[in-house]
Amino acid sequence: MQPSAIESSALSEPDDHTHISFGQRVRENLGYLAWLQAVVATLGSLYFSEIKGFPPCNLCWYQRILMYPLVLILTVGIIRRDPALRWYGLPLSIGGWLVASYHCLLTYGVISAELAPCSAGVSCLARWINWYGFITIPLLAWVAFSVITVALLFAKPAKELDHE
Asked: How far apart are CA 76 and CA 9, in angstroms?
């Protein structure tokens, strides 16, 4: 018995559901990139304060409050392959990005020092590091929150990609 033309073509072509494009593979792994960036930023923050002895200012504390939970939230989301992963992480990463942006504008003199929220204790204008003449701790935090936010915006968990 000969298979019909439709059955014949279905037998000879590869299954489209098993083929995952490079773009899909990248989008599937962006959650891992966001998680890795959060881990590196958290460890870097702890290194600067606990090993180097740089005391965090008020804005640094707000950024820590928004960064540290990202490690746990993204870990759970990745383990569960939760399609809603980005919706748990984005509020924290966008909030951190806004605080880090404000902190960068203060340290680079774009915003007046009179608007710094650190009136007592450690100054938000202090430059504990100044690598290459422009890389400061607030800039490192801004880059970390930017990477996490962009990664989460474009991330698509494998579960969601399975249905495309």
From this structure: 42
Give residue 9's pLDDT band: very low, low, confident or very high (50, 70, 90): very low
- Please state, in angstroms and rounded to a whole number, the distance separating the CA atoms of residues 33 and 52: 26
* 134 alpha-carbon distance from chain centroid: 22
Residue tagged 């003199």 (tokens): 109
* Of 26, 28, 59, 63, residue with least CA distance to 44: 63
Claim: this prediction has a pTM higher than 0.90: no
Strand partners, 135: 131
For 118, counting Cβ atoms within 10 Å of its Cβ (0-12 exposed, 13-18 middle, 19+ buried), the class is middle
Q: Are 36 and 148 in contact (CB under 8 A)?
A: no
**71 contact partners, CB below 8 Å, separation of at least 6:** 35, 38, 39, 42
Q: Is 123 helix (H, G, I), strand (E, B) or coil?
A: coil
